[in-house]
Design brief:
Elements (H helix, E strand, L loop, with lengths): L1 E2 L16 E6 L2 E12 L12 E2 L3 E9 L2 E12 L3 E14 L4 E12 L5 E11 L1 H9 L4 E12 L6 E5 L3 E4 L6
Parallel strand pairs: 3-7, 3-9, 8-10
Antiparallel strand pairs: 1-2, 2-3, 4-8, 5-6, 6-9, 7-8, 10-11, 10-12
Length: 178
């Protein structure tokens, strides 16, 4: 599903720009995928952040490459030159059900506006979740399961968010698929 050319400078690590990774995912060359913040402290999901944006969907496809989770977000009516930031947060002490499913929250904030006409866009983004993976391995788990909640609509008062949840993502930690 993906390949990484470690001969490309930014994929080599030491002394290079590690704020993004260049990868070929699902046969599409993605030259730069920004790496965004991943917090092990849950943000306040009951309020709307300043300049918060809504996602129309989160694609089911994803990739886990060397500690990085690649997600594909969809936004409708998104101006081409608008600049956004993404963040992912969770409460490490709050697991769902007997399957120990983490509930991660994806937020999108507009950083720089663009007044041109918008269109539907798929925006790939990456998050360094290596610490979460290590925590699961430390607990002798063969897999890491999580779902991603994303802001889908604002409440009637425009001061609250309606969250939509993805299906459960599973990362195999047993070594069988490595």
């Amino acid at each position: 599903d993906y390949s990484i050319d470690y001969g490309v400078a930014n994929n080599m690590g030491a002394g290079t720009d590690t704020s993004y990774t260049e990868a070929i995912i699902y046969e599409n060359t993605i030259s730069e995928v920004n790496r965004w913040n991943f917090y092990n402290t849950l943000t306040d999901t009951s309020i709307v952040a300043k300049d918060e944006l809504l996602l129309s969907s989160l694609q089911a496809r994803s990739a886990y490459i060397r500690g990085n989770l690649f997600l594909f977000t969809e936004m409708s009516n998104h101006p081409t030159n608008q600049v956004d930031s993404f963040s992912l947060s969770y409460d490490p002490d709050n697991l769902l059900g007997d399957d120990n499913i983490y509930s991660l929250y994806l937020r999108t904030i507009k950083i720089k506006a663009d007044t041109t006409r918008g269109e539907s866009m798929i925006i790939p983004c990456a998050f360094d979740i290596e610490e979460l993976v290590k925590e699961a391995e430390k607990n002798n788990s063969d897999e890491l399961k999580f779902r991603i909640n994303y802001a889908y609509s604002f409440g009637k008062d425009s001061a609250s968010i309606n969250w939509k949840s993805s299906d459960v993502f599973t990362i195999d930690l047993s070594g069988k698929d490595k």
